[in-house]
């Protein structure tokens, strides 16, 4: 679905630019025309990506998606107009760009309406059958029950297996096989079988699974299924052999480490140049609210790469006596947060001083958010594999920050760890770039943590 959406948008962007410059395209194609077209498509694609329009689990109704499309088109118009004015490119004239962006907005909105609402092109969902009806299978039933979680598949039901510890699934979702597994799969056009039994030894119908596999039916382990569908790793279901034999979790070589260091440092300098006026305003606002003698910055110990303790720096967003009773989790509507603090937190302005931590190599731009030592000691005991977060460098933003709402409990820490482990397994420069671009959506819509 996402590939179709991506390719469809690219085609529509090309058509929009062609229609806005139709006279130019009737002439001989020049390098300037070609580069202008590619630049338009690239900027539009980047804006759509940054506004979350290619997220597989976008939790927006139609009007919300239209709002994102409009903002992305407006951002593209501004960027392309500025570039056109600076370079004097005749094919990026204000009127041409405005027409192209407007056509792009209308056409991509119609494309999404047809694709998602009326299933044009017959984009049918996969039919899924789950082997198991116990505790492991229950994760699919309870944590993936919303329509938005099942955009890519239809859940046919759960087949009870001998290895199930407890029968947890509701009776109406249970499938009792009156024929062989192979016959049921063929008769019901099952595309994928998810193995979710609590105990596998001596309980799985290996011969029938083999017969299904050679007939083109996918057979997926529940951990891989959850990972593919949700972008997280189910920590409570992990067993060591899955981690050992699973693809991913690759280490960084010296070249990658050097490249990351240069990229993070360069981007930190650019970010400082772009944001220092906002940082100055934030500092003045803190002083005005709390008095001339009140500190602007707040230094706090955090656990980073390989368990190293470092001091993170932020704009102070809480009252001066916020931790007079000791370290506490920050809550979503924390009464300790000042008026200025609430605003700068919402738009992530309080995090900007961490440019310093990036330049000193204590952090990178992308990675698991570093946590306080007082909390880490407890979380390592209560949450399995929590220390795995420290095998990569901490980040200013991360996969968990994009995917999970504000967290202030150990249960929230567990949920964020699922996304952090997914990031650690799949991390790459392209994934880092994707997270950075999508962070723009978090900031623009005031979803900062």
Task: Write down the Rg.
Answer: 25 Å
Strand content: 5-15%
Domain count: 3
Structural class: alpha/beta
Query: What is the CA-CA span between the terminal residues?
Result: 30 Å
| Overall average residue pLDDT | 86
Number of E-state strands:
8
Instruction: Please estimate the helix content.
Output: 40-55%
| Element order: H for helix, E for strand | HHHHHEHEHEHEHHHEEHHEHEHHH
Runs with pLDDT <50, length 5+?
A: none
Question: Major beta sheet, specifics?
Answer: 4 strands, parallel
Total helices: the number is 17
Shape, per Cα inertia axes: globular
Strand order of the largest sheet: 2-1-3-4
How does this structure look, described?
This protein has a 4-stranded parallel sheet. Helix 1 (2-20) runs antiparallel to helix 5 and helix 4 packs antiparallel against helix 5 (94-117). It is 51% helix and 9% strand. It has 17 helices and 8 strands. The mean pLDDT is 86. By secondary structure, it is of the alpha/beta class. The longest helix is centred in the middle third of the chain and has 37 residues, at 254-290. It folds into 3 domains: 2-117, no CATH class; 126-230, 3-Layer(aba) Sandwich (Rossmann fold), CATH 3.40.50; 254-444, no CATH class. Strand 1, helix 6 (135-143) and strand 2 (153-159) form a beta-alpha-beta unit. The protein is globular, with a radius of gyration of 25 Å.
